[in-house]
Specification:
Distance between the termini: 16 Å
Number of helices: 13
Radius of gyration: 29 Å
Helix content: 55-70%
Strand content: under 5%
Shape: elongated
CATH topology of one domain: Fumarase C, Chain A, domain 2
Strand order of the largest sheet: 1-2
Order of helices and strands: HEHEHEHHHEHHHHHHH
Number of strands: 4
Length: about 300
């Protein structure tokens, strides 16, 4: 949410630099317009809904255009990152998330009937490569012989439509993916249990430090106990209960509480609430309609 919000802010901030026009003649002097040249340009740009440039040559300086292309590449990269995470979590051996799939109607593989590939997410990742590739020619176009040598012209006929159309398409793909995203909470819990509790070693270590053991000593002890649990393929809880050093400081109940992942979330819920709150406030400030959470209350 916050990454998307930053992109929206960047888009709004670059509008005044990108949405400009010029009516300054062949070399930017407005000599052919006489003493009212600046006024003519201002009135003309008002008709077009653009701001007049402060100074130009025969063309508007291309740092403005390059900024827009770079921003679109940033947006594409964020979408690439989101899609990559979904693809990773959809892998059979993880299986915590999956993009929408029309079972019974959609074909996942032409040869393997059981497959449900993350084709939408893969498409986003693929197109992001194209959008990022447009940054280089956009930056190259900033340089121009005598401020106008036409080497920017042909490239820009492709740059702008491709970057804008592809980014728009990727955004719509991601909306479709997230709207139908399938979440497997049961599989998430199973994955948390794969290490037989060793994943919670830091929580146990901190519990020991709160009881007076030095952090360095607690870290050494937990390294040894996690290694033993792994080598013997045993539940971490069993190994902890056998440790005299641990049992001298922690009760069975305290060990069990330390091994619960839900007890070690830190400020996660507060961070999520704050991110949602800020995003909703920004939506409201932009005049967008209110949204309704899944739990049913209006926000």
């Amino acid at each position: 949410l916050r990454e998307d919000s930053r992109h929206i802010k960047r888009l709004n901030q670059c509008r005044e630099r990108v949405l400009v026009g010029k009516l300054t003649g062949a070399v930017g002097t407005q000599a052919g317009f006489g003493p009212e040249g600046l006024r003519v340009q201002r009135l003309f740009m008002e008709r077009l809904g653009l701001k007049p440039v402060e100074v130009s040559t025969q063309i508007v300086q291309r740092d403005r255009h390059a900024e827009l292309i770079c921003l679109l590449a940033l947006i594409a990269s964020s979408l690439d990152k989101f899609a990559t995470e979904i693809r990773e979590l959809q892998r059979t051996e993880i299986g915590e998330l999956a993009e929408p799939f029309r079972f019974g109607r959609q074909v996942g593989s032409s040869t393997m009937p059981h497959k449900a590939n993350p084709v939408l997410s893969e498409r986003v990742c693929s197109l992001a490569k194209l959008v990022r590739s447009l940054v280089f020619p956009a930056l190259e176009n900033v340089v121009s012989w005598q401020e106008r040598d036409l080497t920017n012209s042909a490239a820009e006929r492709f740059l702008f439509p491709e970057a804008i159309i592809l980014t728009d398409y990727m955004l719509n793909l991601m909306i479709k993916i997230l709207s139908g995203l399938r979440v497997d909470e049961k599989r998430m819990r199973e994955n948390l249990a794969l290490t037989k509790g060793r994943i919670m070693s830091e929580a146990v270590m901190l519990a020991l430090t709160r009881k007076g053991m030095s952090r360095q000593e607690a870290h050494r002890l937990l390294r040894e106990l996690t290694a033993k649990s792994l080598a013997e393929n045993r539940e971490f809880k069993e190994v902890l209960l056998e440790s005299v050093e641990v049992r001298n400081l922690l009760s069975v109940e305290e060990i069990e509480e330390a091994l619960k992942p839900e007890n070690y979330l830190g400020t996660t819920l507060q961070q999520v609430d704050e991110a949602v709150r800020k995003t909703l406030e920004e939506r409201k400030a932009r005049g967008l309609p209110e949204v309704r959470l899944d739990i049913g209350r209006a926000v």
